[in-house]
Amino acid sequence: MVYDALVAPFADFEFMRRALVAAIALALGAAPIGVFLMLRGMSLVGDAMAHAILPGAAVGFLLSGLNLFAMTVGGLIAGFAVAILAGVVSRVTELKEDSSLATFYLASLALGVTIVSVKGTNIDLLHVLFGNILAMDNQTLMVIAVNATVTLVVLAVIYRPLVIECVDPVFLRSVSRAGAPAHLAFLGLVVVNLVNGFHAMGTLLAVGLMILPAGIARFWSRDITGMMMIAVVSALLSGYAGLVLSFHSKVPSGPAIILVASAFYVVSVLFGRVGGILRQLFPAPHLEA
Amino acid sequence: MVAQLQFRDVTLGYERHPAVHHLSGEIASGALLAVVGPNGAGKSTLFRGIVGILKPLAGSIAFGDLDVRDIAYLPQSAEIDRSFPISVFDFTGSGLWRAIGAFGGLGRRERRRIVEALGAVGLNGFENRPIGTLSGGQMQRMLFARVLLQDAGVIVLDEPFNAIDAKTSADLLALVRRWHEEKRTVLAALHDMDLVRANFPETLLLARGAVAWGPTVQALTGDNLSLARQMCEAFDDGAAACAAHVPPRAA
Predict the structure, then answer these.
(1) B54, B45 in Cβ contact below 8 A?
(2) For residue A51, is it within any domain?
(3) What total number of domains does chain A contain?
(4) What is the tally of helices (H) and strands (E) in chain B?
(5) Whether residue B232 has pLDDT greater than 60
(6) Closest-CA residue of chain B to A170
C-alpha cells in the first residue's frame, strides 16, 4: 500500500524517474541560491529575473522550435544581459539595484511579448509558461544536471566574498576588489538556475524552488550553513512529494511541487523553531542570564 | 617624519557639490590625528575619499607606497546588515582578509588570533553569538577586534565613540593609544573635545576646508571652533562652478 503510493510510480515509470532526477538536480542548485536571495532582500528580484529570460527563450523557440539548446542559450543571454546591465547601472549610478532591475526586466518582458505577437502564429507557448517536468529527455536532464553542478562549484568559489558583501559591503570594498565580480557571478547563477527551473516548471514557477525553500529554512535555523542545508532538504522533499501528488491526482506536476513547498512553508510559519507563530504565542520561559 | 598620506588640493563631494573643498596637507607616518568639525563638515566624506570609496572631484590623495586596501577603515556602523546570520567569530575573522584572501583556510594560528582579538576588546565567550544579538557597545568592540586583525599601518575610525558608554570608550581608546605606540597612523573623527584634547596630539578642524590643522592646543581654540560652526551646511543648487577647479588626475 505504502509502496504503491510512494515508490511504485518511480519503479514502474521511466518518466517519473527522470522527473525525480530533474527535481533533485533543481533542488540542489536552486535552494542555496534562494537562501542568498532571501538574505539580501532580493527574493522578488529572482521573480523579476524569471520574467526577464522570457524574450531570449522566445527568440530561441521561434528560431528553432522546441529546441532545448536554443531556448537555454537564448534565456541565458537575455537573463545575463538584464542582470549585468542592472548590476552595472546600480553600481555606477545612485539607482538601487531593485529599481534598475525592475526597469530592465519590464523592458525585457515587453520585448518578449512583442516578439511572440509579431512573429507568433499558433505557437504552443504553454511549454514556455508552465514547463513540463514529466517530459524530460536525456538532453534536458543533462542540461539541468550540468547547470546544478556549475552552480554548486561557482557558489563554493565565491562563497566568502559573497557572504561578506552581504553583511558588510563597505568593508569588503575597503579590503578587496572581489565584491563586484562575486556579485555579478551570483546574479549569473540566479539566471542559470532560472533557466533550469524554466525547463521543468516554466517561466511562471521557475523561481519557486529558489524562494520557498529559503523562506522555510529561515524558520528553522539561525546560521547560514544550517539554512542552506534545510533549504536543500525541503526543496528535495517538495520535489518528491509534489511528483507523488501529481501522479495520484490531476494536479499538474510543476504546480504540485510548488504547492507542497507552500504547505511546508505554512507549517514552518506556524511551528518554526526560529520565530514561528506558535513560538511567539507560547514562548519558553526566559533564562537567568 | 615621512608623509603617509598627502592631500593635494583635493575636493570630495557628491553630484559636483563639494563636501571637502580644496584640502591640502599631509599626515605624517605614525601620526595620531583627530578630525573634528560640525555635522556636515565633511569628516566622513574625507575618510571615504581616503579609503577609495569616493573618487575625488578634483585634486588627489597620495598614499606613497601604501596599497589603499591596507588601510583599516571603521565606518559608522549603520552600514552593516546586523540581521545577517553570521557569528561574531566569523565576522571578526573577515579582518584577516588581506592575509588569507577569499580561499585561504583558517588554521589553528588564525583561529587563535581571532580569539585573542576578541579577548583584547573584552568579548570573550561571544564567539558563537550571531552579530544581531550584540548591543551597540559590543558591536563597536567587535569592529575594533576586526581592525586589530587587519594589522594595518593606517587606521581610519569614523566617529568610533558615538553612543558608546564611558567604560567602552575608555577601553577602545586604550586600543587607539596602543596602535599609536606601535607607530601606526591613526585618524579618528570625533565630537568630544575634551577627549581629543586629552588623547590626540594633532587635530584637523574641518569645515569643508581646513579651518585649522596642527597641534591640538593650537587648533582647538574658541575662535577656530566658532569659525567652523559658521560654515553653511546646505548645498546651493544654483552654485556656479568653482573657479579653482582642476580635473582630477591619477595619484
Answers:
(1) yes
(2) yes
(3) 1
(4) 9, 9
(5) no
(6) B79
- Which of B71, B80, B91 is closest, CB to CB, to A174? B71
Q: If you count DSSP H runs as helices and E runs as strands, how many of each does chain A have, helices first?
A: 15, 0
In a domain, A58, yes or no: yes
Mean pLDDT calculated for residue range B17-27: 90
Of the partner residues A163, A176, A223, the one whose CB lies closest to the CB of residue B69: A176
Nearest to A193 by CA among A245, A232, A157: A232
Q: What gap in Å lies between CA A49 and CA A102, rounded to an integer?
A: 9
In the β-sheet with B185-190, what is the strand arrangement from edge to edge? B71-74, B154-158, B185-190, B32-36, B202-207, B209-215
At a CB cut-off of 8 Å and minimum separation 6, what does B145 contact?
B92, B95, B114, B117, B118, B120, B121, B123
Question: What are A145-163's pLDDT values in tens digits?
Answer: 999 999 999 999 999 999 9
In a domain, A188, yes or no: yes
Q: What is the DSSP string of A147-181?
A: HHHHHHHHHHHHHHHHHHHHH-HHHHHHH-S-HHH
Residue pLDDT, tens place only, A200-236? 887 778 889 999 999 999 999 988 999 999 999 999 9
d(CA A34, CA A224): 12
- Asked if A25 and A145 touch (Cβ cutoff 8 Å), the reply is yes
- pTM metric for this prediction: 0.84
Domain span at A118: 2-279
Domain at A69, CATH number: 1.10.3470.10
In this model, does residue A81 exceed pLDDT 60?
yes
Query: How many Å apart are CA B205 and CA B222, to the nearest integer?
Result: 12
Residue A21 lies in a domain: yes
> Is the CB of residue A38 less than 8 Å away from at least one CB of chain B?
no
